[in-house]
Amino acid sequence: MGYFRYLSLILGVYMSVAWIWVMIFPDKYKALASKVLPEKKPVWFTIASWVTIAFVAFTWYKFLQTPTALTLGISLVMGLMLLKPLWILRNYPHFHKFATEFILLPNSMLRMLGIFIIGLGILMTAIGLAI
Question: Is the entire prediction scored with pTM above 0.85?
């Protein structure tokens, strides 16, 4: 249970703080995103993708050791995280186009609100795991 408590706490805080940062500094967010998402796929994207896949696999392994409703929720969120590295590994140009449009669209701040709400939900899960 300790693994899932800390995992949900870290993910929840990260997602919530990231949304607040984006809302306060939208220009810095767009500048950082343009630096992090170059046209050609950097080598570190491949490495980070494989590390993410291993991390998600480890999370599901831990879930199978301690299956509860709250750990299932965190494991499902982590499972959804697999979409991004698999997409990057398979078709980076398409991912780059999608991510750039996502950031530059006028309603991207509204989408970030959804990430904030999910982050709060994950924080509530961390609180539930602590009780």
Answer: no
